[in-house]
Amino acid sequence: MDEEPERYRVEFASGSAASVENRRSFRDRERNDIEPDLPGWPPGPAFAVRGFFGKVGRHVLTFVTGLLMLPLYFIAEVLGSPGSPDKRGKLEERENEVDDFPVMWAGVGETARTLPWQLDPSRRAWRVVTELELVESEDLVRITTYEDSARGNRFVEWGGGRRVPGSEAVLWELPRKEIAGAEAKRFSMAESDFKIVFRDGSWARLTTTSSGAAGRIVSLLG
Predict the structure, then answer these.
(1) CA–CA dist 117, 185 (Å, integer)
(2) Cβ atoms 137, 148 nearer than 8 A
(3) Phi, psi of 117 (to 5 degrees)
(4) Where is this region: Disordered (predicted)?
(5) Are 118 and 128 in contact (CB under 8 A)?
């Protein structure tokens, strides 16, 4: 009997620097915006790098939120739960992590442009989940989707949820040989981002919401 493929929740990453926090862009090799050229993609929020006052506002919000969350972190530590704030690693590419935040880098007709729009959390319904599947028996990489009944909203998951019947679908698949490699991206919260590079030189920056999975994905794809 065939083994079940390994599955990891993934989606397009979003910026963590104040200038691009919670934002993402889609670029060609000349750094032009390619969102209007992606066939079948629904409209999404326009990308813009925050100016000085916008960045100050994000820093103030982060500071205030941290103060408000301190009692919860303290209680979690006392109870032995992993409640400390997520850490972010070292900045690696200022041009792609502070001055801009491309999650798709591809010329016309290149592989990264074929990735499904459902990977963008700002375009899909909040209960929809996207997963990366590594199907070793067929040497394929797949992106699948389903609706999760446990998701209370975009940010909170109640636990104990199930896949809504009939909501599962395969969105995208690619022979493993078409992937040139993968690398972890340290400049992300909990270092959960990773980059997939395709044989034609195009790439995508994704993040995983499965705990500790970025390294495992990179190992399997690299």
Answers:
(1) 22
(2) no
(3) -65, -20
(4) 1-39
(5) yes
d(CA 103, CA 218): 16
CB neighbour list of residue 85: distance below 8 Å, 6 or more residues apart: 66, 69, 73
4 vs 89: CA distance, rounded Å = 33
- Tens of pLDDT, residues 195-220: 999 999 999 999 997 767 999 999 98
Structural domain boundaries in the chain: 6-50+87-221
Number of H-type helices and E-type strands within the chain: 3, 9
114 contacts 107 by C-beta, under 8 angstroms:
no
User: For residues 25 and 206, what is the distance between their CA atoms, to the nearest angstrom?
Assistant: 12
pTM: 0.82
**Conformation bin of residue 217: beta by default, left when phi > 0, alpha when psi is -120 to 50:** alpha
What is the per-residue pLDDT for 51?
60
The one-letter code for the residue type at 108 is V
**CA-to-CA distance for 208 and 7, rounded, in angstroms?**
11
Sorted by sequence, the CB contacts under 8 Å of residue 8 that are 6+ apart come out as 131, 132, 208, 210, 213, 216, 217
Quickly count: other Cβ atoms within 10 Å of residue 2's Cβ: 8
Annotate 97-122 with b (16+ C-beta within 10 A) or e (fewer). bbebbbbbbbeeebbbbebbbbbbbe
